[in-house]
């Protein structure tokens, strides 16, 4: 909110200055040479302020709008996992939820859901759709920056229904880490690198 006000401040000040100069000119019965020069300087300053404000509006993008994901918070691990794997999954998921914009995540490996954590969707089963199959086959991540605009969003019915952005990150050649965010276009390149590193670590542990 503060940034929004600051970005508009030069436009407001510049516009106000231009209006006051116009009023002053209209109310002055006889102009002097010095006043004319002052008016020119004032007009230039007002124009510079307005232009600066317009540039700020373009250069400083709005932060993405966040939503409250629909669902209950939970932490579900597959019961038949070794304790060491459970500990690793718990550690990795905690890091992702606390250090990135992720609010819901699923670990899918060898056809099974090993972990669900964060805001949980209504479905617990993962049935790979076109997008997840592509990630598993090509072993390359896919980032859906604004999930609602993709027809393939229906395959992510195991995430909260109003999930805004999704990353499908391969875990070796056997599974994927599926992360849901509560704002579109909110993952940075640094987040993507961080997620890839954790997925590589999980691949070693799970193999």
TrEMBL record:
Regions crossing the membrane: 6-27, 39-56
Top-level taxonomic group: Bacteria
The keyword Transcription appears for this protein: no
Short name of any one Pfam family annotated for the protein: CCB2_CCB4
Keywords: Membrane, Transmembrane, Transmembrane helix
Record's protein name: Cofactor assembly of complex C subunit B
Protein source organism: Nostoc favosum CHAB5714
